[in-house]
Amino acid sequence: MLKRLIPLLLAGAMLAACGSAEPTKSSTLQFFAMDTYMTLTVYGEGCDEAAAAARDEIYRLEEILSKTEETSDISRLNRGEALESLSPDGQEAVEEALARRQETGGAYDPTLYDLVELWGIGTDHARVPAEEEIAEALSRRERYDLGGIGKGFATDKVVQLLRGLGVESANLSLGGNVYVMGSNPEDGDPWRVGLKDPEDEQQIVGYLDLEDQSVVTSGDYERYFEENGRRYHHIFDPQTGWPADQGLESVTIISADSSMADCYSTALFVMGLEEGLAFCEGREDFGAIFITSDREVFVTENLRDQFVLTAEDRGYHYG
């Protein structure tokens, strides 16, 4: 059977081709939240209500985690309110973000609010700041920006909600965060998820067949601006205050824990290939795929039997 791909980071998740005369009932919702486009597809009885509940849960969490909404938990925290005064979900998200910062040696840092605002990447006032401005922003790490964990945190909460509603099969695309729940209801096979080519968003580099896993990619092609012929992307090295420049184009994390995958994809991109691979050694709770600017693809040992490289004709090869 020819399978169609769920392309990571592309709008919309595609169901595998099927010859069944009575396809499984499904409900798909597409909407904008957390500063990105999202697509939720839920299968089975009660799918309409479940998909709507999942969407509403994302809206609810956005109101908690937004750094721009004045009444959000994060805005209140940034104005000096105590962590203990936040909602349970707000506290949990911040505490996990701080734990991930410690785990990654600061390669992921949720307190770069001032630095992110200074660069303005993704806005109409993006610019290259002076070194003095960058140093000053790095000295003020008192305000939170959960952009590197928020969608992953929301994904985990949505999956928990859907399981509580009895949903067994779904595919969720929260911007760059994809979660495939259960198996394909039409044939019982795992979902096939394609990894986007960093140099051509209409192509994939390869794919994996997965069940109950999150796939999160961080790449230098997602949000950026160009000045004097140089690209400046949105993934900052917390040590230098500049966009991370380690010769990587993307890092993809596969894990059942979407919050962890979200943070680790950023952290390993900042670490670079050698340090990132060392971080992965001995870990069974996640796997990683690194794509370098030389089109080399490095896959951690626990994913080598799952990942299929399909872009050799475009110069991609295993490292």
Structure, described:
- This protein is an alpha+beta fold and 319 residues long.
- 29% of the residues lie in helices and 26% in strands.
- It contains eight helices and 15 strands.
- The protein has helices spanning 47-65, 73-78, 88-103, 113-119, 131-139, 150-164, 258-271, 273-280; strands spanning 6-7, 26-33, 36-43, 170-174, 177-181, 191-197, 200-210, 213-219, 224-227, 230-233, 248-255, 287-292, 296-299, 308-309, 317-318.
- The strands form three sheets. It has a nine-stranded mixed β-sheet with strand order 2-3-4-5-8-11-12-13-15. It has a four-stranded mixed β-sheet with strand order 1-6-7-14, with no helix packed on it.
- It is globular.
- Mean pLDDT is 92; it is low at 9-21.
- The dominant shape is globular
N- and C-termini, Cα separation: 31 Å
Rg, Å, rounded: 19 Å
**Rounded average pLDDT:** 92
List keywords for this structure.
alpha+beta; globular; 319 residues; 9-stranded mixed β-sheet
Summarize the helices and strands and which ones pair or pack.
Elements: E1 6-7, E2 26-33, E3 36-43, H1 47-65, H2 73-78, H3 88-103, H4 113-119, H5 131-139, H6 150-164, E4 170-174, E5 177-181, E6 191-197, E7 200-210, E8 213-219, E9 224-227, E10 230-233, E11 248-255, H7 258-271, H8 273-280, E12 287-292, E13 296-299, E14 308-309, E15 317-318
Parallel strand pairs: 1-6, 13-15
Antiparallel strand pairs: 2-3, 3-4, 4-5, 5-8, 6-7, 7-14, 8-11, 9-10, 11-12, 12-13
